Amino acid sequence: MESAQTLDAFLEDLNNYSFIFWKEKLKPSNGWAVPFVTNHRYRVHFERGLDFNKMKVERSERWQETDLPMFFSLNFTDSREAVNFTDLNTNEQIMNDTMVTDPFEFGQNRVLNDTATRQIDFVVSGLPAERNSIQMRGLRCLTGTCNLVNIIDVPIPTETAFWSNPSTWKSGVVPVEGD
After folding, report:
1. Least packed by Cβ within 10 Å: which of 8, 39, 135, 144?
2. Which has more confidence, 161 or 3?
3. Could you say which DSSP state residue 99 is in?
4. Which 8-state DSSP code applies to residue 84?
5. What are residue 154's DSSP bridge partners?
6. pTM of the predicted model, to two decimals?
7. Is residue 144 within 8 Å of 96, Cβ to Cβ?
């Protein structure tokens, strides 16, 4: 396990980042391929947070038996009661918190759903050989009746408001640390 100091240094180094431009699509499910190198760990950070209903991940047809697994971490911001992983070949659900055994299988995962973390970790690998496609589905309400008592309707400004601009604030004063 890496130290917090090592992780912080990695995250602060801008050389560890690249940018994938979002392509506006009429049908977002017609996604595009993004290449990744096996035997690496990737932290994919979505600019606005990953707020999704479902996302499909497919293993390349070029995957070799000798290729080692890849590990992915994704952020998300929207509250989810659960994130289900499903093997799309068999329609079987892959259990959560299974990313603990080696050899690592495609779809093994860990969902950290606490407010401070909200992170999804999962594995892409050649095992089992017949599993080549998984779907992640974020569920807001498992029971169909969610407690909406604590939800506050927050108005969203129609134009960009800059933190540093005093006119952004009702008081006409930019907040300072501790406000």
Report:
1. 144
2. 161
3. T
4. E
5. none
6. 0.68
7. no
